[in-house]
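Handout, page 2. Input:
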Amino acid sequence: MRSTHRAVRSAIGVTTGLALALSGALPASAATWTLRDVNQRICVAAQYGHPGTYFLAPVVGSWSTTITTGVRNLPPGSSSVGGTPIPPGSNYGTNVNGFVQVTIAPAPVGEYSAEVWASDGAETQSVPVAISIRDSC
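Output:
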């Protein structure tokens, strides 16, 4: 009888441990992709700005839903029409599969920190982009 109880307790313990491990092993939005930081910097003349340029949004790994891309925290007056959607797939090399179009408006001289972001709807990742606005570049 004692060995039966021990076996039942052991089975319950293993089952409980397995259930807890499985429920806590993966967060609700466990990304299998990463927005790669490629240390982007741009220098823009304060008087003219820079219309019609873009930032890179390279995603590596694999994903099953479309990843949207964009940029935030641009200098005053600057804008973006958004980035290219990245359809479900994978990328394990150095291919750049995402781009974000931006227009940098003429702005006061200074250093600005924008962010390129990518989202699969459950998780959003971002990387910094340095924008240097100077009298001349």
